[in-house]
Design goal:
single chain, alpha+beta, Arc Repressor Mutant, subunit A, three-stranded antiparallel beta sheet, about 55% helix, globular, transcription regulation, transcription, ArsR family transcriptional regulator
Length: about 110
């Protein structure tokens, strides 16, 4: 029951749903790209990423000083319908204004 509540509370936030949406779309992103896409400071983004990672939604891969996040495939298989709905969300202005921001900053 506690794991279920952790999962539900992790996605009970618009910013975290947007993070999942972008990671489903781009597969894997570094923190700097997520910052630009979401127009969010690093400390706030890190807090959201930790909540999603602790709930089992994300994995983190480190390359030197860079951290890349992606969707945990095991959880993706368990909750495929939920992830499909998140991926296909029409998030109107929240996404459209940042749609073309991905840069080549990260190696």
């Amino acid at each position: 029951m506690q794991k279920f509540l952790t999962i539900i509370s992790a996605i009970n936030d618009e910013s975290r749903v947007l993070i999942l949406h972008h990671l489903l779309r781009y597969k894997e992103l570094c923190v700097c790209d997520l910052q630009e896409l979401l127009n969010m400071g690093q400390s706030r983004l890190s807090r959201h990423l930790k909540i999603l990672k602790d709930a089992g939604f994300l994995y983190v891969k480190r390359k030197g000083t860079w951290a890349y996040y992606g969707i945990n495939n095991e959880l993706l298989k368990l909750h495929l319908d939920l992830f499909e709905n998140i991926k296909n969300l029409e998030l109107k202005n929240a996404i459209k204004k940042n749609e073309n921001i991905i840069t080549q900053i990260c190696p």
